DNA sequence: TCTCCTCTCGAACAACCTGTTCCGTTATGT
DNA sequence: ACATAACGGAACAGGTTGTTCGAGAGGAGA
């Protein structure tokens, strides 16, 4: 009996989550309806709502299982080393990331992504000796804002660049400012 | 006969646009429906669709009449001088900006705002001697991303700060990087 | 003023979506 | 085998969008 819940529950939940990802890839998050999902998953409507509150709940259940957006932080080495790996990873998963973060996505999704990134960046700056303060939070917001803006425009193909170029631009833009801030301590 | 179109047309369009702003202030852009708007504007449904394609069209008609988000650029003086004035202005118009750009807003609205800002920032960097290139576009994206991230979190009250503090954080984060880029030429 | 033309109203409509309820049927775990 | 829990499926109320139609009101110009 692997996994506590009933096998039917596991199957149903998996079918629904799988269907959502497929549909998001095809139409973009915003355009997918609950009806689409239950048709694709071949699941009763009542069954769907017995497991999830709605589209967004399914998405979040999926996101928490996607580990590649939680890289480890490091206090030594160059700052924000996560970015290069993340751009590379996004290149592989381009279709999915585009569907989730791109123009046709919803606000909640990018907000979730920004939240995760902010925690990451804040932890790294703290580990490098920055004092916890409002000013730090503002800096974190700027760094994450710059990163996400690059990422979103990239997956939307508004800009064409390699992961290396993106990474370089990102570090060139916010790196000096962050280094100055850290040096002021 | 001021203004070419029929007086009825002027009245109708104005009533609709006014109603949208009111409702956006009350409920946030996303939550406002066309039905809400025509009820508030006291206008027939068919009349509404005779003038606008939908909610978003009304919004854009409004946005193009809001001039305060088009400050002049300057090639001398400190870079990105627009930011301070803009933070100040947003403070006055906080409710409206929040409704338009905040958590409960739609993607299209912020995308529109980012577009305007990108043109502004790009022009300023070009005026300061940066060569037009893909690398410039990446930098512009970072700068605007950082600015918008601050703005959005601020109007959403996720961060508390004065316009001066926001402005300082913004310049501290992206200023050094931009100066280095300009110096490299 | 008077006429013509445009705009507006209001209701009704089809089509779609969400979330809930009900109950008979089926699959599981023990 | 059997009690329990999950599933299916249809139907439902309530809400949304965008379109259509004809009748009536309003403006602009002569």
Automatic annotation (TrEMBL), chains A, B:
The keyword Transcription does not apply. Pfam families: TetR_C_8, TetR_N. InterPro entries: Homeodomain-like_sf, HTH-type_Tx_Regulator, HTH_TetR, TetR_C_Firmicutes. Residues 10-70 form the HTH tetR-type domain. Residues 33-52 bind DNA. Transmembrane segments: none annotated. It comes from the Bacteria. Keywords: DNA-binding. This is TetR/AcrR family transcriptional regulator. It comes from Streptosporangium longisporum.
């Amino acid at each position: 009996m692997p996994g506590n819940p009933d096998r039917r529950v596991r199957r149903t939940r998996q079918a629904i989550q799988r269907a959502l990802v497929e549909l998001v890839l095809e139409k973009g998050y915003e355009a997918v309806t609950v009806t689409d999902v239950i048709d694709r998953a071949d699941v009763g409507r009542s069954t769907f709502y017995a497991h999830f509150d709605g589209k967004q709940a399914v998405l979040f259940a999926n996101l928490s299982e996607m580990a590649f957006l939680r890289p480890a932080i490091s206090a030594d080495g160059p700052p924000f080393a996560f970015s290069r790996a993340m751009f590379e990873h996004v290149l592989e998963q381009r279709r999915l990331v585009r569907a989730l973060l791109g123009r046709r996505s919803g606000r909640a999704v990018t907000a979730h992504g920004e939240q995760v990134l902010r925690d990451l960046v804040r932890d790294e700056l703290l580990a490098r000796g920055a004092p916890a303060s409002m000013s730090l939070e503002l800096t974190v917001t700027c760094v994450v804002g710059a990163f996400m803006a690059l990422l979103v425009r990239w997956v939307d193909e508004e800009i064409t660049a390699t992961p290396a170029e993106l990474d370089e631009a990102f570090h060139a833009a916010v790196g000096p400012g962050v280094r100055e801030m850290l040096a002021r301590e």
